[in-house]
Amino acid sequence: MKILVLGGAGYIGSHTVYELIDAGEDVVIIDNLETGYKEAVHPKAKFYQGDLRDRAFVDSVLDQETGIDAVIHFAANSLVGESMTDPLKYYDNNLCGTKTMLESMVAHGIDKIVFSSTAATYGEPEKTPILETDRTEPTNTYGETKLSMEKMFKWVGRAHGLRFVSLRYFNACGAHKSGEIGEAHNPETHLIPLILQVPNGKREAISIFGTDYPTKDGTCVRDYIHVTDLAQAHILAVKYLMERK
Ligand SMILES: O=c1ccn([C@@H]2O[C@H](COP(=O)(O)OP(=O)(O)O[C@H]3O[C@H](CO)[C@H](O)[C@H](O)[C@H]3O)[C@@H](O)[C@H]2O)c(=O)[nH]1
């Protein structure tokens, strides 16, 4: 397969590229390196640096890279807190980037996309575990933009035959077994990299937030999935789209 990975230099994207290449697939990456890292790009992937909101750039990549079977979309801003203080940044990057990308995909006859969505599309769960049929009522701009992106896929699917899978996962963690790539954000806000800064001597201590969770001291509860498991889930979703017409 030939797979275009949007955001393939980011945390989950770069791990997915590693899994795809290990499985012998051809990989093309688009990433603007706003939050991704050039060093996280697998040396065997074809890399194009640019922004999804730039239609001429996206068209030029798709003109050159013929034969793309499917797209995996990780290219988005993803900080919940920032999305509340700067909502329009999230509308602009997450929604406008996806809109331009979809225009170009439709024009180039690419009809499959696997989407890195989020559990934040559900908002406050009424019960756990959350079922995918549960009500979606995001409580932050980040989750709202991801839900809107899903809806774009749905309506573009009705009009132009696009087929998609959205994976609404919660927190990812871990690093590639080779140690070549891992998780890093700048500034770092994510819990696990922050914890690791303590034994690495980069930080004195960290605080675990939360006072009213059902834990001994009320600190927060999160579910985690290993990033390599998540990467493989994206590949299984691509295969599902390839095999089921
Ligand atoms: O110093 C810290 C930093 C974080 N936390 C807590 O640790 C948990 C995890 O926080 P992260 O910042 O690592 O991740 P988030 O849960 O905020 O965000 C993750 O889940 C979101 C969905 O809710 C989005 O998908 C987002 O992209 C993804 O990183 C939270 O309860 C947070 O409050 C601390 O206790 N101390």
UniProtKB/TrEMBL annotation:
Classification via InterPro entries: Epimerase_deHydtase, NAD(P)-bd_dom_sf, UDP_G4E
Keyword Membrane: no
Any one biological process term the GO annotation gives: galactose catabolic process via UDP-galactose, Leloir pathway
E.C. no: 5.1.3.2
Gene Ontology MF: a single term: UDP-glucose 4-epimerase activity
Coiled coil: none
Pfam families: Epimerase (PF01370)
Known pathway: Carbohydrate metabolism; galactose metabolism
Start and end residues of each NAD-dependent epimerase/dehydratase domain: 3-239
SUPFAM superfamilies found in the cross-reference section: NAD(P)-binding Rossmann-fold domains (SSF51735)
Reactions this protein catalyses: UDP-alpha-D-glucose = UDP-alpha-D-galactose
Cofactor field: NAD(+)
Top-level taxon of origin: Bacteria
Keywords, in A-Z order: Carbohydrate metabolism, Galactose metabolism, Isomerase, NAD
Oligomer status and interactors: Homodimer.
Protein name: UDP-glucose 4-epimerase
Species: Anaerostipes caccae (strain DSM 14662 / CCUG 47493 / JCM 13470 / NCIMB 13811 / L1-92)
Designated gene of the protein: galE
